[in-house]
Amino acid sequence: MAEETESTKTEPLKTAEEEFKKLEITEEEESELKLETSDHVTFMVEASIAMKFGAVQQYLEVSPAASASATAIPLHNVASRELILILEYYRMHDWVDAGERDLKEFDERFLKDLNYEELKELLLAANYLNVEKLFNFLTKSIANIIRNKDVEFVRTFFGIDNDYTPEEEAAYREENAWAGVKFV
Amino acid sequence: MKQWVVVALRRNLVMLVCDDLVIEILSWLPVKSLVRFMRASKSLNTFISDPSFVKLHRERSPDNGKLLIEYFTHFSTLFVSCPIPSILDNNIPSTIDKEQRQRLYFRSDYEIVGSCNGLVCLVFRQNFFWWVSYRASLWNPATRKIFGSHCWSMLLANFQSPMFGFGYDNLSDTYKVAAVLPLPSCGDSSSLESLVLRARAGESCWRCIQNFPANSTIFDFDGVYLRNNTLNWLGSTLGNSNPLFDITFDKLAIISLDLGNEKYSQLLLPRALYGLRIADFCFPNRPYDKPITIGVLKDYLSLFLQNRMTHNFSLWQMKEFGDQKSWTQLVNIGVPDLHLSDIWARVNLVPFCMFEDGHVVMIRNQHQYHWHAVFYRGRLTATERPKAAIGGGRRPIGGKEGEGRRSGKRGERRESKVKEGWDGEKVVMVGRRERRRGGMKRVRKGKEVEQVAATIEERKE
């Protein structure tokens, strides 16, 4: 079951992927690195962007031969759709002509297209890849989302189990009434 | 098959958006949301109360510089936090503002040791016949939570009252509380026993370190924490036997404890002070008004002196830590020149922040409910006496705007200075604890606070 959903999910992506690669090929001034995602899609990424990924840097430190683009650098915890998003984000933020307003608009659109699950997966990918800018951006945006939500929402959002007894919870609520009972 | 494993793994990961990632996300939230989410689970609660999270959160929150003011009512203590810019305008919040104030009820007596990175170190004191137990705790005024452990207490004979110090050790990434016991360690009269506690969850208790290399009982104040990882006290290098009034400044030194390796070192006082008698700096019959104090201004160790004979207030700063030649006199003013309306001779000035252009703000605390900010606007050079005078304003707590010495225009200028000059330092300063004195009438609950304000009004008149 899970296998099916995953394969249907990746197929349209793969076509998008090919288009993406074609675009890549047109600008060939820069050296490129080969990245392989967890669902076995290989990406050719400009070295300038790929080197911003902490995970890639680390890999290249351990085995410098991989930069000769013959072997793909495996990214075990990143699926292709997340990598596409991450690359999209970094392309935009690296673009010299992008003004502050453009970036802000882009960021808003970028967030709008994602649902909570995707956001979390993207955060995990960003964490694995060790990309600081995107990671901070994502954590900040998630914080903004949950900021005014109630406890129940946070529990389901992070998958936290409630281990308080009802009495303890009531006591806690009373003690911290100043922090906003109206959300409870 | 392979794909399926990957998917399963990924689902697991999503469930595991815990610990580090959650902490990262939560660190961007305002305090109110955090306190609400602490209820989500016990583990989240411990994460949020952890001092290391407090530090991270503090670095990321835009708000900086708050003063914590302590008010005493009949049964409890009220704490009101107040942003420093509003202190500079003498706009100290009243205790009537219900949203802001925090009430603390402690069964035992407590003492505020110091504050660092937004955490306040409290020491609770409890008497058991001939013994007194001292228990250290960290209090976070923002979340109103107390963090502590039962191992953090020590039992001493009741004639010993230790000096404490609280700081953050950058090397080991922990908060440390230091205690210096007032009795000389056996045989050697010029050194005192000292202990250190690593304030960390699950961490052990107080442990002995190198002896405190001076006698400090005459000054008896809590250690001053500097960003260079040291805690500093003032002490005399003579033995215990010499009475305070006989010694001169060359027998004094600043004793500094390196929180990293827990070793003491001595810093000498400015050479210009050598030969002066300490007795000139004390009120003969008010020993608790400490005339010689040290503090931190703009991350430099500073020495504040108030001469009772010449009525001069002077401020020295050690520009290079550990170098005696780097002491510079920044302020030297006659207290009467400040035109303070009270009997200036009995006034205690406590400098508490300093701007890039050398302007100093001092707080004067006359008695229990009376606060004042005094702005020093003179040119601060070593020799020159200030030409420009002081702008002082007063506003008793809960009262209306008092007789400010500044015009509206000046007030505006000051506003901009606060923004430019504030060097980004985030400090929570704790109001110096005053002695409890009478004068409060017993009042019904709920009316208490208004009563405080009324009392102040009365006192003013």
UniProtKB/TrEMBL annotation, chain A:
Ranges of residues in domain SKP1 component POZ: 33-93
Pfam families in the cross-refs: Skp1, Skp1_POZ
InterPro entries: SKP1, SKP1-like, SKP1-like_dim_sf, SKP1/BTB/POZ_sf, Skp1_comp_dimer, Skp1_comp_POZ
UniProt keyword annotation of Plastid present: no
Start and end residues of each SKP1 component dimerisation domain: 133-179
GO biological process, one term: protein ubiquitination
The entry's keywords: Ubl conjugation pathway
Pathway(s) this gene product operates in, as recorded in its UniProt entry: Protein modification; protein ubiquitination
The UniProt record lists the keyword Isomerase: no
Name the record gives this protein: SKP1-like protein 14
Source organism (scientific name): Mucuna pruriens (Velvet bean)
Lineage, highest ranks first: Eukaryota, Viridiplantae, Streptophyta, Embryophyta, Tracheophyta
Gene designation: ASK14
Automatic annotation (TrEMBL), chain B:
Record-annotated F-box domain positions: 17-57
Span list, region Disordered: 389-420
Coiled coil: none
Superkingdom of origin: Eukaryota
Biased composition (Basic and acidic residues): 398-420
Listed InterPro entries: F-box-assoc_dom_typ3, F-box-assoc_interact_dom, F-box-like_dom_sf, F-box_dom, F-box_domain
Name of the molecule in the record: F-box/kelch-repeat protein
Biological source species: Mucuna pruriens
Lineage, top ranks: Eukaryota, Viridiplantae, Streptophyta, Embryophyta, Tracheophyta
